[in-house]
Amino acid sequence: MKNWMYDGDSKVEPLISSRIRIARNIKNMPFPHNLSEEQCKNLIETIERAFYTSTHMKNDFKTIRLWEKDSNELKSYLEKHLISPNLLKTPNKSAFILNREETVSMMINEEDHIRLQCISSGFNLKEAYEMADKIDSMLEETLDFAFDENLGYLTACPTNLGTGVRASVMIHLPALTMNKEITQVLKALTQVGMTLRGLYGEGSNADGNIYQISNQITLGMSEEEIIANLEAAVGQILDQENRSRELILSKYKYELEDKVFRSLAMLQSARVLTSTECLDLLSNVRLGLEMSLVEGVDKAIINGLLVNTQPATLQQNISRSLNERERDIERAKFVRETLSNLM
Amino acid sequence: MKNWMYDGDSKVEPLISSRIRIARNIKNMPFPHNLSEEQCKNLIETIERAFYTSTHMKNDFKTIRLWEKDSNELKSYLEKHLISPNLLKTPNKSAFILNREETVSMMINEEDHIRLQCISSGFNLKEAYEMADKIDSMLEETLDFAFDENLGYLTACPTNLGTGVRASVMIHLPALTMNKEITQVLKALTQVGMTLRGLYGEGSNADGNIYQISNQITLGMSEEEIIANLEAAVGQILDQENRSRELILSKYKYELEDKVFRSLAMLQSARVLTSTECLDLLSNVRLGLEMSLVEGVDKAIINGLLVNTQPATLQQNISRSLNERERDIERAKFVRETLSNLM
């Protein structure tokens, strides 16, 4: 699996990354919100032991105990989509196990005891699922998971019952956003048991025109069905997005190019840059790259900027505390330096 | 006298150009609005004869008869500030005599029979006045001007009575515009008998933060007093503008640089550019050049763009008729090409 942030091999495409998340709980043990701090820490040890015993990639992984890290570092993991906002709510009880490539992240004591995530660059749900399934099977050799013959795997929230599998993609839909068709897309997805959310999950805005599409229903469906359904829906949305892009290009070629080239020029020249504006400009440049209107910025650069310009990650890379204005100045500097001498 | 549009010698400065305008009328002849087309054309011939007989620079000048030209070409002269909107109202009765450098323009049958203008680059009112005075004296050798011992030179509008001289400067005041002090400047100028107007004269907006400051009163004052008063007022305004700039720089250095560099980048990359936006961006880049925040764009380029991106001049240089959208596309192309490979 390739990390979507560093994938420099192929063309910039609207489908940024694919993710499989598996929820599991230990048999006969209350869900995390009913466990004490001590019980949670013991559980982390138990799960760690199971993980590092069974995995063949022992040296590749490390455990990050939330109570040992400062909040900015943790927010940076959030910005990289490696952990959820929920996990950060109980830093004294939670941990996650992460591989070096940052493609596998296993949260411990989020809503469920285990939330294993495998994230792959591009449209690769199957690859991500195979990895998740492999780790899940290895864990099951040691751990006894809560399972009901009728309901399947038991989870804290009933929407995750069954396979406990949620599949999602991160997708760039600027044309459908521009022409407001995104509202209809959301409606259609809801009707087939899927959901569309902004870049940073539930309730977040679609900054940078990047959305997450995922299945809402896990009960009564096999993992293969979940993935196949999502792939089909995403395929349709991609077609719709591409048709909208062609329409815009045929009607407003100059205006579209204007947007793309101005955005690139602003990223290359701004001295003060907010996070939201940065995401918007990156979206426009990304659109230009995806449509081959502009060249010379590769996938790793454009994807890397998406995360490295986020407040906490930016601050993390600079290694000092910044106020908002200083951050906007440092962001502009970082983006300018990253994009200088490129074109 | 140097033409402000092509003056590439010195630093970009807030004071763009200085102009002297002299109004004269032929004795015992009604003002132009009371003359028939035939009378006007005869008068043009009379004045032309006087001009080309007395001037020693005969080969340098040409007469442009408005009825022989298409309206776009005439508008382009307006955009270069060589003629007034008033002159264009009676194209069948009017003409102007222009030198090759486009620093001297003598309108015939505007509000007065003769409106002689001398325009010099930078803060050079005296130089412009000397040239205007020289031509005026030469004309007076042949022509008999309407003159009253008490009132001085007689003019169609009483505000021009006396010397018939109006002095004005074209000045870039972005800082006073930004901090809204420009309203107080206007009040103060009005109290001392001067006026402040936008780039294209009465009633026009100050697009590009460029203003015209001129004396309103000509009666009871010598030419020297008019010029000295204007010079003093303009000097004060320049000081005020510079203080405002320093204040902005000390408080908002990054924001100011952000504005300047983004504007330059947009001019270098836009694919669609309206005239108004273009003037705004040019004003920001000009401010950066004047404050030495940015380098590499010389005076002739920045001044040239100010005029060459105006609708009629742009169309004139492209030599074909364009609709508004096509003009915005061609303007972006022209600006991009002018500013490419500069920095």
UniProtKB/TrEMBL annotation, chains A, B:
Q: Does the keyword Transferase apply?
A: yes
Q: Where is this motif: RDXXRA motif of the pArg binding pocket involved in allosteric regulation?
A: 327-332
Q: Which UniProt keywords apply?
A: Allosteric enzyme, ATP-binding, Kinase, Nucleotide-binding, Transferase
A single GO cellular-component term from the record reads: extracellular space
List this protein's GO terms for biological process.
phosphocreatine biosynthetic process
Residues annotated as binding ATP are 17-21, 81, 115, 166-170, 197-202
Q: Which family does it belong to?
A: Belongs to the ATP:guanido phosphotransferase family.
Q: What is this protein called?
A: Protein-arginine kinase
Q: Which gene encodes it?
A: mcsB
